[in-house]
Design a protein that fits this description.
The protein is an alpha/beta fold and about 675 residues long. The chain has 16 helices and 15 strands. The protein binds adenosine-5'-triphosphate. Adenosine-5'-triphosphate binds next to α1.
Length: about 675
């Protein structure tokens, strides 16, 4: 509630004045040009008006008392407005709120709330929080009393919405629409960009998804290769059994056979030592030689005998010598037969000689020779027996040794068979080593280390048989070849584009969500505005009709909702007048007042300032206006500038303003009878 206004140096008020406002109606009166409206300007200025034109000036300086012929100008204008805040009309923890404002000649100014310097915005916000303000319905000038009446349908609707506090929702709606528009633009842009990115991204993804597969393929290949080679090594190791035990066995057999052979050879050597001698018994032989020697001696002796022809004797002797010679050569039994033949031949030759004429005459010699020959013959027989004996021994010896040689042959044949077998096995062994080398090569080619394969590997690990595993390995290698090497640059680009794409996709989702939210907000706001407006409109309209009837005592007026806003329909039945344009100035003023009060009635502000809004009214209508004021005084505090007596009569406090000779305004309080 307004308590007091203090002015100093403001417009025509050079000296300090103080206006104490009544709780209900305060009226300011005075002649034209005395400065009444300057008080209203001060109120508007204090409420935060910053446009000099709305304060009937052209600059801040024009608000400062400018001086007259007889009064000095001042350097600053200042004003303070006191509010009773005991009912907490302002959301501040003070019983009294003082809003002050100063302006200096250089155009600078100051704003204070309870003596503390603040910004203009703080002042405006303070009043806005309590439905007050320099603009709007708080202060109505003579010139803008018919604001609602002369406004367009759209403006009327806007005014009503402002009074209802729906402007903030309209602003929010406007902001939401702008935001929706820019959101949709961004959405379109993002969609366009994603559409542009998509083919490139798809191409890159086709490439990189192959590479993604590469890891899986390479890993399967590695695992499978490892298992495959484990199995191969194991089976290769097992293949050693194909020859090794057999080889060891055969080698042992061969060693045994060698030993046997050696043993048989030693036996043969030993038996060879027992081989019978084929030499003639030396005793028999030397006996024979001696006997031949005797025979020779005897013949030599006979040759000296005159009865014996010398030639014949020599034949004998040469026979004996030849025979002796043969005997000397007789060293082995093999030529014994030959000797026998020679001896027999010798004997027959001797016998021929004996039977010849020459010797036959010498009987003694003949008998001696015959004796000797008999002896030789007997010796030969003995030798023959001996020879047979030796031959028998040979036969026996040969039989024995033959058996050993047969054994040797048999064992050697076994050994040869064994060596042949070993020869066959060596092929298998070579095959084993060849397979091993091949496996090593394969493992090396697969970039694996043969030595890292543990010998005791569970065979069950390989889930396929070897042929299936080989097929799978070939397939995986072909796959890897087909996939090719990873290009880091392409991968990087794919990641960047994908990140950008998913960022945009997320943004699109967010923007779509934001769009939906904004659309929903706009609908909600429209509903809220529409709902609140319709309710307020109905009550404002019925108030308008009611006040119209109270003021006009005739006809009817109503607000009509149109497509664009609010139209006003007036019908003065007695006069047969309908429509605003047909009304007189006073009637128009009265209609404006009815509309003003109808608007105020929706949400009465804490105070209302009317500056000569009743100027055009006649006596009768002024009274009706005064009655209307009275009926409203408990809802709002009124401050009026007027010339009307009827209005003065309803005032609780009355002030008179006069213009002094020095060109400065004076204020005086006129005490009214209670
Ligand atoms: P009406 O009844 O005709 O509306 P009023 O009482 O409302 O008159 P105002 O308009 O308040 O009169 O006062 C106008 C007077 O104030 C003028 O005489 C004008 O010269 C004077 N005035 C306005 N600004 C200044 C100023 N800065 N310095 C001195 N006097 C000023």
């Amino acid at each position: 509630m307004l308590k007091r206004l203090e002015l100093q140096g403001f417009k025509s008020f050079k000296e300090k004045i103080s206006v104490d406002f009544a709780e209900t109606i305060t009226v300011i009166v005075g002649p034209n040009g005395s400065g009444k409206s300057n008080i209203i300007d001060a109120l508007r200025w204090l409420l935060g008006e910053h446009d000099a034109k709305n304060l009937r000036g052209d600059s801040g300086e024009s608000l400062i008392f400018g001086g007259t012929n007889s009064s000095q100008k001042v350097s600053l204008a200042q004003a303070s407005l006191y509010f009773d805040n005991s009912k907490k009309i302002f959301p501040l923890d003070y019983e009294e709120i003082i809003v002050s404002r100063k302006v200096f000649r250089d155009g600078t100014g100051e704003y204070l709330i309870n003596q503390a310097q603040v910004r203009l915005k703080d002042v405006i916000d303070l009043f806005a929080s309590s439905k007050m303000g320099a603009r709007g319905l708080s202060i109505i000038n003579q010139g803008n009393a018919d604001l609602f009446i002369k406004a367009s349908d759209t403006e009327r609707r806007t005014m009503l919405e402002e009074i209802l506090g729906l402007k903030q929702y309209q602003l929010k709606k406007h902001e939401a629409k702008l935001k929706l528009q820019s959101t949709r633009e961004n959405l379109e842009k993002s969609k366009l960009t994603t559409e542009e990115l998509l083919p490139h991204l798809r191409a890159l993804k086709r490439q990189t998804s192959k590479w993604e597969k590469r890891d899986a393929v390479a890993s399967e290949l590695k695992t499978l290769e490892t298992l495959y080679f484990q199995r191969k090594i194991k089976s290769w190791q097992e293949s050693e059994k194909n020859y090794l035990p057999e080889k060891t066995k055969l080698e042992n057999t061969r060693a045994e056979l060698n030993k046997k052979i050696e043993h048989i050879q030693i036996q043969i050597q030993d038996i060879e030592k027992t081989k019978p001698q084929d030499t003639i018994n030396s005793q028999e032989k030397s006996q024979l030689e001696r006997e031949l020697g005797g025979l020779e001696a005897e013949l030599r002796f006979a040759s000296k005998d005159k009865t014996v022809k010398k030639a014949d004797a020599n034949d004998f002797i040469s026979l004996v010598i030849r025979l002796k010679q043969d005997l000397e050569d007789l060293k082995s039994l093999t030529n014994l037969e030959l000797v026998f033949n020679k001896v027999n031949h010798f004997i027959s030759e001797i016998n021929q000689l004996i039977n010849g004429e020459t010797i036959s005459k010498n009987t003694a010699l003949i008998s001696s020779l015959e004796e000797k020959i008999k002896l030789i013959q007997s010796r030969l027989t003995t030798l023959e027996i001996e020879k047979n004996l030796v031959e028998q021994k040979f036969l026996e010896f040969n039989q024995i040794i033959k058996k050993y040689y047969e054994d040797l042959r048999k064992v050697e044949t076994e050994k040869e068979a064994c060596i042949r077998e070993l020869g066959h096995l060596s092929l298998k062994e070579e095959r084993f080593h060849y397979d091993g080398n091949l496996l090593r090569e394969q493992i090396k080619d697969a970039n694996l280390d043969f030595n890292e394969f543990t010998p005791s590997i569970s065979e069950g690990l390989l889930p396929l048989n070897l042929t299936e595993a080989e097929n799978r390995l070939h397939y995986l290698k072909r796959e890897l070849m087909a996939i090719g090497e990873i290009d880091g640059e392409v991968l990087k680009e794919a990641n960047t584009i994908e990140a950008r794409y998913s960022f945009l996709t997320e943004q699109i989702t967010d923007l779509e969500k934001a769009s939906q939210d904004l659309e929903k907000l706009i609908i909600d706001l429209e509903e809220k505005i529409g709902h609140d407006f319709n309710i307020a409109f109905k009550s404002a309209n019925s108030a308008f009709s009611k006040f119209f009837k109270e003021l006009f005592k005739d006809g009817n007026a109503e607000m009509i909702l149109t497509e664009n806003g609010i139209d006003i329909g007036v019908d003065l039945k007695q006069k047969g007048v309908s429509g605003i344009n047909s009304l007189s100035g006073g009637e128009r003023s009265l209609l404006s007042i009815a509309a003003l009060f109808a608007l105020i009635s929706i949400s009465p502000p804490p105070f209302l300032v009317f500056d000569e809004v009743d100027a055009a009214l006649d006596e009768k209508n002024s009274r009706r206006f005064a009655e209307l004021l009275k009926s409203f005084k408990n809802q709002s505090q009124f401050i009026l500038v007027t010339h009307n007596r009827s209005v003065m009569e309803v005032a609780e406090a009355l002030y008179g303003v006069t213009m002094g000779e020095a060109g400065t305004s004076k204020l005086m309080s006129v005490k009214l009878a209670p």
